[in-house]
Amino acid sequence: MSEHESHQYDVIVIGAGGAGLRAAIEAKNRGLRTALICKSLFGKAHTVMAEGGVAAAMGNVYPEDNWKVHFRDTMRGGKLLNNWRMAQLHAQEAPDRVHELEAWGALFDRTKDGRITQRDFGGHRYARLAHVGDRTGLELIRTLQQKAVSMDIDVFMECKILRLLADSQGRISGAVGYWRPTGEFVTFTAKAFVLATGGIGKSWKYTSNSWESTGDGHAMAIWAGADVIEMESVQFHPTGMVWPLSVRGLLVTEGVRGDGGILRNSEGTRFMFNYVAPMFRAETAETEEEADRWYDDHANNRRTPDLLPRDEVARAINAEVKAGRGSPHGGVFLDIASRRSAEYIRRRLPSMYTQFKELAGVDITTTPMEIGPTCHYMMGGVRVDADTEAATVPGLFAAGEVAGGMHGANRLGGNSLSDLLVFGRRAGIGAADYAEGREGEPTVDGAEVEAILTEALAPLENESGESPYDLHRDLQETMQSLVGIIRTGSELEEALERLGTLRERSEHLAAPGGRAYNPAWNLATDLPAMLTVSTAVAQGALARKESRGGHTREDFPNADPELGKVNFVQRQTDPRGPGAPIIVSPEPLPEMPAELRELLEEGQ
Amino acid sequence: MHDDTEHDDTEQQEEPVAAEEVDRAGDDGLGAAADDAAPTSDGDVTMRVWRGDPGGGEFVEYQLPNQEGEVVLDVIHRLQASDAPDLACRWNCKAGKCGSCSAEINGRPRLMCMTRMDELPAGPVTVAPMRTFPIIRDLVTDVSFNFEVAKTVPAFSPMPEPADGYRMQQIDIERGQEFRKCIECFLCQDVCHVIRDHEENKAHYAGPRFFIRFAELEMHPLDTNDRRELVRKRAGLGFCNITKCCTEVCPEHIKITDNAIIPMKERVVDASYDPLGWLGRTIMRRSKRSPEEAVAIARSGGSAPHEASDEPSDEPSGEAASAEA
Asked: How far apart are CA A428 and CA A387, in angstroms?
C-alpha cells in the first residue's frame, strides 16, 4: 500500500468550481507550478447550478449604483454578522472580476447600448446581477475552465481528497486521496493549498446541492486544526421544487421573482406583504400597486416584498404552510404566468421553463409553480484573513463557499458568484505569495499517510457492516428534521446525540465491491466529513441563542444585539480528526471603521 | 428529437460488431433477454443495466417498485441504495445542467436525470453506457478524449478593450450564447458516426461538441484568432456528413448541424474540400495514402492564397481544386 503515486507542486487548489478555477488561474499567472484537483469531471462543479447572475455594482442599468450601496446591501442582508472587510473588498472588486470574464470570452446578456445588462434580485437595491438568461453559473465555469485550459494548468479529475497533512512545523504541506476511477491512492505535496470545495448541503434530505457537497473542505480544515466560523448559518433557499418528490429541493432561481414572479398562498394572497421585518420596512412597498410599479421605476417606488432577502422569504413560506395556507404538495405558489408573456418567460428563464416542463409536467408560462424552502448554501466556513484568504493554520487558504465571513448570517442572491471570483483571485494571490516565501520543499509524514489510507480502506475490507447509503439516509433525516430551517434547543441537543450514534455506526460500514468507481465506498469516504460538519452546524446552532439570518431559533425568536457582535468559532485542538471533539467559543467580530458604519445607515 | 426517423437512425448504428460490443450497445428491450423477463406487476419497473468493466460485462436485470414522477437516475440511485451498492454512474446536478449522467437509455443517448420513467414505453428499461468511449465501470466511461481535444482549441483572443469597455449588441451574441449553452454531456460525441465504432478516427476528428466550440469562437464579436485552418486540417470538419444525429440528441436543443457545422463548413471549405469529393478521392487512394495525407494533399494545392500561402480561403476556387483532385 505504501507504493503509490505522488505529485509535487507549488500551489494546489482543491475544488474546481468558480473559486478554485479563479485561484488556480492567479497562481499559474505568477509562474508557479499549479494544479487543480476535483472530485467530479472538470467543469461539472456546483457552480454550474448557479442560475440568476453575478452581483456587481457596475451601474450599467442604474448609474446611481456603486460599491458602497452593494456593501450596504450585503451587510444588511447578512444581518451585520459579515466580516466587514470581506464585504468591502467584494463590493469594490466584483465589477472588475465580471469585466475580466468578458475579456476571457464570456457572453453576458446585453443592454440596448451594448453593455452587460443587470437584473433585480432579492436584497439588492438596484438591478445588479450580470447574467446569461438563467444559466449564469455555466457561463462562469466554462469561461474560467477554458481560460485554465489555455494556461495549461494541470487538472486532476475525479480525485477525492481524504485529508490534509502538515509538516513537522505545522505548515500544511500535503493532501492524500484516491482516484475514483481506479480507487488507487495518490499523495500531493505543495507549498500552499487552497480549499475551494464548496458547500455541505448533502447532509440534508431536501437540498439543491449535488452529491459533491459533502463539506470535505470544511471538515479537512477542522481536522487540520483550522478555525471555522458561523457554522450555524445555513441558507435555506425559499424556492425549491416540491413536486414530484424525486426532484424535491431542486433550485428555482430567484430570477423568477426578479423578473416579475410573485408568491401567493392557497387563498391567492400575496402573503409577503405580511412578513416585512422592521429592518426592511422603509424600503419595501406597502401595496401591490406600488410593488408592481417598482419593476419599471425603482426611483419613485419601493421594492416588492417578494424580493426580501432569502432568510425572510423562506421563513414566511414556512409559516404560511404551517398555517394551512400551503399548496397541494406542501409549498406555496410562485406565479409568473399571470404576470409576464410566455415569450418573455421562455427568453428570460429558459432552463426553469425546461426544468418544470420536463420534470414536473408543468408549463410555467400558463401555470404557477409550487415551491418551498430547500437547503442551499453554507454561509459559515473556514475563518480567513479578508485580504489573503489565509486560514488560521499556515499554508492553508480558502475561498468560495468553504470560507466563512463574507456573507454573515445570510447571503444575498448573486453574491456567491461574485464571491467566487473576488476571493478566488485573492486566495490565488495569497497562496502564491506564501508559496514563494516558503523555504525548502514540503514534506509529509509517511506513517500518517499510511494510517489515513488504512482507515479509508476499512469499508471495503469489512466483510459485514452497515450500508453507507443507510447511514447517509439517517444523517439526512436527522439534519432535515432537527437542524432545519426552524430550530429549538431541545431538538439540537437530540441532533447532537444522534450524530454521536451515527459517528459510531460510521466506524462499521461495509461497501461491497472493489475499489474502482465504487459509489458505495466513495460515499463511505465522504461520510466522515459530513458527520464532522453536521456536528459543527448543530453545535453552532445550539450556541447561538438568538434568531439571525439563516439561523432561526423557535425558543429565541428575536435577534440579540450582544450576540450580533460575536462569531461562534469552532476548532479542534488535541486530539484532532474525525470524531474528535470540536470546541465552540464566541469571539468578537472585527471592528468596522466609522466611515463604513455610516454607509449602513444610509437610505433607511 | 422523439420522432421515429431519428430513432431508426440511431438503431442503424447498431451494426454488427464484436460480441462484447453488442452487449454494451443495448437492444431496446426487444432482445431475447427481455422475453425471458418475468412479467411485472403494474407496481414494478424492470431495469436492465449494463454491468461490467474494460474486461467485459453484461446486462443485469433488476426489479423495483414503481414510484411516481421519477427519472431514470432516481431509479439508478434506488438500485445503489438496495440491490446494487457498487453500481457505478456519474451524476451531479440532477437538473440537466451539468451533463454528467449521459447514458444510452433503450438504445438512445440521453441524460438519465432528464428522462422520466413514465415517458418510456412499457416494459424493461435498458440502461447502457455511452458506446463511443472506453468503459471504466458499469455506466461510467472514459471521456478523456474530449478533455484532450479541448486542449487543442486555440484560446479566445479578444481585440484590445476600448476605454469605455467592450460593446456588443444582444443580436450579435445570441448565436454564441446558443453554443455556450453546451453542458458537455458528450452525447453528441457519443452518437456521431465518425467516431462511434471508429476509434481510429478520434486522432483526427474533434466531433460536434468542438465544432460548436469553434463556431462559437469564430462568431464571437471580439475574437481575433483565426481557427479555420485548424478546423479544416486537424479537427476534421470534413468528415462530418451532416446526418444531424448530434442535433437530435442534444439535451440543450442546440442546432449543432444547422447553426454551427454547416456555417463552419461554408467558412472553411472551398471546393477542394468538399466532403463527398474528399471521400471519393480517399477511397480511390486508400491503398496509397492515409486520410491525413489525403487531407494534406487536398489542401496543399487546393486553396487559393489568403494572406499567407498556407491560409484557407473563404472564396471557392473550384478549378484549382478539381485540378488537384
From this structure: 11
Cβ–Cβ of A467/B81 closer than 8 Å?
yes
Which residue do the cell numbers 486532476 mark? A156
Active-site annotation holder among A124, A180, A237, A407:
A237
The candidate with the shortest Cα–Cα distance to A102, out of A56, A155, A67, A43, is A56
Q: How far apart are CA A196 and CA A382, in angstroms?
A: 10
CA-to-CA distance for A208 and A140, rounded, in angstroms? Answer: 19
Of A142, A155, A518, the CB nearest to B86: A518
Chain B positions touching A98 (Cβ under 8 A) are: none
Are the C-beta atoms of B104 and B84 separated by less than 8 Å?
no
Helix (H) or strand (E) holding A288: helix A288-294
Beta-carbon contacts of A306 under 8 Å, excluding residues fewer than 6 positions away, are A257, A261, A262, A263, A270, A272, A291, A313
pLDDT digits (tens, 9 = 90+) for A206-248: 999 999 999 999 999 999 999 999 999 999 999 999 998 889 9
A22 φ, ψ to 5°?
-65, -35
- Cell triple for residue B191? 452518437
CB A577 within 8 A of CB A507: no
Q: At what angle do helices A18-29 and A136-150 cross, to 10 degrees?
A: 30
**Cβ burial, residue A355 (10 Å; 0-12/13-18/19+):** buried
pLDDT score of A393: 98
E strand spans, B144-280: none
- Among B95, B153, B169, select the one facing A114 at the smallest CB separation: B169
Residue whose C-alpha is closest to residue A357's, from A342, A338, A372: A342
Out of A131, A248, A257, A425, which one is annotated catalytic?
Answer: A257
ipTM: 0.94
Cα–Cα distance measured from residue A186 to residue A178, given in angstroms and rounded to the nearest whole number = 5
What is the total residue count of chain B?
A: 325
For residue A215 the three cell numbers come to: 463539506
pTM for this predicted structure: 0.89
- Is any Cβ of chain B less than 8 angstroms from the Cβ of A473? yes
The per-residue pLDDT for B227 is: 86
Residue A512: which of B85, B138, B158 has the nearest Cβ? B85
Residues of A in contact with B151 (CB under 8 A): 149, 152
Q: From the CA of B248, how many Å to the nearest CA of chain A?
A: 16
Q: Is A490 on the interface with B (CB under 8 A)?
A: no
Q: Say if CB B195 and CB B207 are below 8 A apart.
A: yes
A186 pLDDT above the threshold of 70:
yes
